[in-house]
């Protein structure tokens, strides 16, 4: 027998007129959008949401990180491996400001995220109340969109808009700030997904004339080169890229975030572009007569000195964000479009072709790079271990099948250079921002997003310590990530610049490190430290076979430099292969 | 070469839109020479008119960044010869000095200005026109002691035939198309 109250509640539910709190509405919005995982950290202003979360824990898994920055990076990595938006909760004031680095990082790398910050009760907004901060003002330049909610009934509409904006067009982080009273007050809940906004049009129609002109240009090119960026992965266009490349026979170079958009083992793979990229694609950018840039933004780390960049080439730019077209370099044909749609149309129009002698030019330079850099880095005869040899061995032992996460600096560049990626979305790194401390929380987010994949993070001893508290998250949720600490007792990349450009004056780059194995033990994480290269393979095997998390600390050459390098201000054709201090 | 551009921004009436726009300009060290904000002829659509002095390359970049803002409907960039524009200025001048002879009458006639208020202490003159004309009048009046001077931002109307409502219709149609539907344009 139902009580009167139960009968009334049932009737309300059937009639769609039930009243729920703003906090519950928020959670139901997330469920409607297919969210099942939230990364976050509670605090005073967001307590109503966390309280309600206890009733929804069968549908929404919450991962408590040890710092809000960690939750933002974890959510970003989760988004990068799943293709779903990453969701973060934080409280007002310091909780919200602690997200800032993570938001900026996701913004520069165009990753969809929904950041829910709590705000003090609406009556107190603007009074400098306890833990009040103007997070809308703070986050405005680093979000795709942000909005504050003061009335509970606005929650469904704003959340629907937030998901639509974050995930369409060029994706990005969206921040929603919800006053505490809006979480507590009741509303009649009805959810409708947002599919249209008058002022925002992510479904750009393809300009078929531009596609036609591009096809003609491609068909006539002698030395064409494809530059593939993150936009290919964001558009889930890796198959379209493969088909386009195979039909035209054009070599494919990738940006840092474009890694894994094209298989590293493919015969048309031309390598990784940019400051520490491969020799051939950098040098031959300046020999190409046609550049086909797809979902990339000609960032300074890719182009080097713009005055001497791709001067022999005409440029076709396929890009969803019109503000990126003609921003850094002038293009000949702009195709303002989603990469997938543009490539589908373009592939239909180009003729089958091959560029054997052009591809041979890449192979010749590849051999030079191998002899002068790669051989010594991956098979050194003596001295402490090298980052390259560790990454190369991990790559071989996992057949390029793992998801690789990195921190920032030499560890990142070595991972990008020496891991051979077989699967799309298998490289998680901080590109535009270069955020140290990204690696460890990102590894956690990646593993939670892709539990069936091996997730391996390469961390420097500096970056590891920036977010080392997230070992607590691994402990609490038993996240089986594999962390390879490449310990050179230096902030390696800055030290490399000091070596090369500051007369070896090692200002504030030498690190006195704690006993990482002891720290791992305190968190109950199996760990091992190795100093000799003969132990490397055996230890990696042990790490990969471990069922739970594992930390492998490797002793790396203290003053090793990542080469080749396009020195700051230099052209892509002025690549430094050898550097002896 | 830097030159003067008038940027007309049509946007939804969303809190913070002006802040979002100024962030784009500030980050690139672009100064706003003048600014006006009001509701446009279309209900619910706001018009912001900015005057900036930048290179043509910079104005193209910033206008694309502004148009990228979620709440912005459309951005137009014009040079001064492509628009009809006016500014309004109010001058408060000491009555005693200017009321001698026919100075005031001549000046008002010559500059096509208007007297708004006359009191024993001061006179308020209104002048609508281009910045240079207003500056000229200001210079003339300064000899008689300008007690207060206030000038509005620029209001502008374009010479182009295609009106905002057409663009709104186009945006609406484009948004409702499925992605990938080819459009010959």
Can you give keywords for this protein?
heterodimer, A: alpha/beta, Rossmann fold, 3 domains, 6-stranded parallel sheet, 39% helix, B: 185 residues, alpha+beta, Alpha-Beta Plaits, 5-stranded antiparallel sheet, 33% helix, elongated
Structural description of this entry:
The complex is a heterodimer of chains A (581) and B (185). In chain A, the strands form 4 sheets. In chain A, strands 3-2-4-5-7-6 form a 6-stranded parallel beta sheet, sandwiched between helices. Chain A is globular. In chain A, helix 2 runs parallel beside helix 8 (155-167). Chain A folds into 3 domains: 17-188, Thiamin diphosphate (ThDP)-binding fold, Pyr/PP domains (Rossmann fold, 3-Layer(aba) Sandwich), CATH 3.40.50; 208-361, TPP-binding domain (Rossmann fold), CATH 3.40.50; 384-555, Rossmann fold. Chain A has 581 residues and is an alpha/beta fold. Chain B is an alpha+beta fold and 185 residues long. Chain B folds into 2 domains: 3-83, 2-Layer Sandwich (Alpha-Beta Plaits); 85-151, Alpha-Beta Plaits. In chain B, 33% of the residues lie in helices and 38% in strands. Chain B contains 6 helices and 9 strands. Chain B has helices spanning 17-27, 56-68, 95-98, 103-110, 131-142, 164-176, and strands at 3-12, 32-39, 45-54, 72-79, 83-94, 114-118, 122-129, 146-151, 155-158. In chain B, a hairpin with a 5-residue loop joins strand 2 and strand 3 (45-54).
């Amino acid at each position: 027998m139902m009580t009167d109250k139960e009968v009334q509640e049932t009737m309300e539910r059937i009639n769609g007129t039930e009243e729920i709190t703003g906090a519950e509405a928020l959670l139901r919005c997330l469920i409607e959008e297919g969210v099942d995982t939230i990364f976050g950290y509670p605090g005073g202003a967001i307590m109503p949401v966390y309280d309600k979360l206890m009733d929804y824990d069968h549908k929404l898994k919450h991962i408590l990180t040890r710092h809000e920055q960690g939750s933002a990076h974890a959510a970003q990595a989760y988004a990068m491996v799943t293709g779903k938006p990453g969701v973060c909760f934080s409280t007002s004031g310091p909780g919200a400001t602690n997200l800032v680095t993570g938001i900026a990082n996701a913004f520069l790398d165009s990753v969809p995220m929904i950041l829910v910050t709590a705000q003090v009760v609406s009556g107190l907004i603007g009074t400098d109340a306890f833990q009040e901060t103007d997070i809308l003002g703070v986050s405005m330049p680093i979000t795709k969109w942000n909005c504050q909610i003061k009335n509970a009934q606005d929650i469904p509409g704003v959340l629907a808009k937030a998901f639509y904006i974050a995930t369409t067009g060029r994706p990005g982080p969206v921040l929603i700030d919800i006053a505490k009273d809006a979480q507590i007050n009741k509303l009649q809940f009805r959810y409708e997904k947002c599919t249209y906004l008058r002022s925002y049009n992510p479904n750009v129609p393809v300009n078929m004339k531009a596609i036609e002109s591009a096809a003609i240009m491609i068909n006539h090119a002698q030395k064409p080169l494809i530059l593939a960026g993150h936009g290919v992965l964001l558009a889930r266009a890796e198959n379209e890229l493969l088909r386009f490349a195979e039909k035209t026979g054009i070599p494919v170079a990738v940006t840092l975030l474009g890694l894994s958009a094209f298989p590293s083992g493919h015969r048309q793979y031309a390598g990784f572009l940019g400051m520490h990229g491969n020799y051939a694609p950098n040098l031959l950018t300046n020999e190409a007569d046609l550049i086909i840039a797809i979902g990339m933004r000609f960032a300074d780390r890719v182009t080097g000195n713009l005055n001497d960049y791709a001067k022999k080439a005409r440029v076709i730019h396929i890009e969803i964000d019109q503000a990126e077209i003609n921003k850094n370099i002038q293009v000949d044909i702009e195709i303002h479009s989603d990469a997938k749609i543009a490539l589908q149309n373009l592939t239909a129009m180009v003729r089958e072709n091959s560029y054997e002698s052009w591809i041979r030019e890449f192979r010749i330079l590849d051999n030079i790079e191998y002899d002068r850099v790669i051989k010594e880095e991956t098979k050194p005869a003596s001295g402490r271990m090298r980052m390259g040899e560790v990454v190369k061995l991990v790559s071989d032992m996992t057949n390029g099948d793992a998801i690789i996460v990195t921190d920032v600096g030499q560890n990142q560049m070595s991972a990008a250079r020496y891991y051979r990626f077989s699967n799309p979305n298998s490289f998680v790194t901080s590109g535009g921002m270069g955020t140290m401390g990204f690696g460890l929380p990102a590894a956690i987010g990646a593993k939670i997003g892709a539990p069936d994949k091996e997730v391996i993070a390469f961390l420097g001893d500096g970056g590891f310590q920036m977010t080392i508290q997230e070992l607590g998250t691994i402990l609490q949720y038993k996240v089986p990530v594999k962390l390879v600490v490449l310990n050179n007792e230096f902030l390696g990349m800055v030290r490399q610049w000091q070596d090369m450009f500051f007369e070896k004056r090692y200002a504030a780059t030498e690190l006195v490190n704690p006993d990482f194995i002891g720290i791992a033990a305190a968190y109950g994480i199996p760990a091992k430290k190795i100093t000799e290269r003969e132990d490397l393979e055996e230890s990696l095997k042990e790490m990969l076979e471990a069922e739970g998390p594992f930390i492998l600390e490797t002793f790396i050459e203290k003053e090793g430099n990542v080469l080749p390098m396009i020195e700051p201000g230099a052209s892509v054709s002025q690549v430094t292969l050898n550097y002896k201090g | 070469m830097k030159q003067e551009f008038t940027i007309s921004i049509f946007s939804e009436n969303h809190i913070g839109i002006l802040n979002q726009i100024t962030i784009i300009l500030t980050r690139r060290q672009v100064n706003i020479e003048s600014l006006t904000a009001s509701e446009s002829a279309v209900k619910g659509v706001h018009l912001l008119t900015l005057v900036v002095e930048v290179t043509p390359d910079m104005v193209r970049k910033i206008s694309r960044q502004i148009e990228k803002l979620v709440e912005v409907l459309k951005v137009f960039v014009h040079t001064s010869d492509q628009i009809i524009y006016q500014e309004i200025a109010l001058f408060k001048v000491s009555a005693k000095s200017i009321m001698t002879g026919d100075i005031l009458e001549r000046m008002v006639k010559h500059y096509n200005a208007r007297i708004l208020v006359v009191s024993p202490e001061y006179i308020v003159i209104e002048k609508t026109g281009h910045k240079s004309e207003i500056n000229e009048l200001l210079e003339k009046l300064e000899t008689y002691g300008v007690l207060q001077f206030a000038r509005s931002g620029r209001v502008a109307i374009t010479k182009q035939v295609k009106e905002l409502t057409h663009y709104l219709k186009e945006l609406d149609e484009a948004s409702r198309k499925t992605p990938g539907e080819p459009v010959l344009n």
